[in-house]
């Protein structure tokens, strides 16, 4: 089957599009001329119902489960059959569990990694050959400031996003030689439905951690979130049109506050422990500048 592709169209492949930032991005992309967006979702009817009917001609909704590699492969196959190429990939699918490490079961930890990390990996592994052959394209991996900071209330979520951060930094170095640009996006709080629809609590609650109280804490975060989803989408779209895009970008004033404090604390700790750090070398090892 020949791809139904117009050379002026730019093709986006976005996961996690039934709500939140993913749905907003699909909507904003669908408004752009010469742009088609493939919306990957487990709930096509839900995604479709939330998009302006006038924009649907620019949206190709595919039911797929990112945790199932065969499902991901099929969605990419359908995309290529219809459009013949993929220009921008946005790995946005994800969810969270609010709970202490002791409360999180292996099953719950594996589930969050299956979506947040391995789901993203399934997409990357199967889209990379296309982008390599094209010698062009963008991959946006949506992490979080929680992928840099340890937050006691979100141990499982942080762990999965730390993994995304590490993978993305490595992936950028691997794909640059093929002309493929990889961008790590780490937002702080944005007003979305993530806490309502994408956050859960562990089955095993331990009273001393006051886990149930975290629902109130998370609601406060959302209610006081400064991030505008429209501006999130605008940034991602603008970066995709840049000749020299950032490799890593934080979004939100809170992200800047958090990360400045975190980097300063890590630098201070490094300097404090410097004698111990360099003291572990062999005594006769060649001296190097640090």
From TrEMBL:
CDD domains documented for this protein: 17beta-HSD-like_SDR_c (cd05374)
PANTHER family tied to this protein: SHORT CHAIN DEHYDROGENASE, SHORT-CHAIN DEHYDROGENASE_REDUCTASE FAMILY PROTEIN
Superkingdom of the source species: Eukaryota
Protein name: Short-chain dehydrogenase/reductase family protein
Matching Pfam families: adh_short
SUPFAM superfamilies cross-referenced by the UniProt entry: NAD(P)-binding Rossmann-fold domains (SSF51735)
InterPro entries named among the record's database cross-references: NAD(P)-bd_dom_sf, SDR_fam, SDR_oxidoreductase
Family statement: Belongs to the short-chain dehydrogenases/reductases (SDR) family.
Residues that span the membrane, as ranges: none
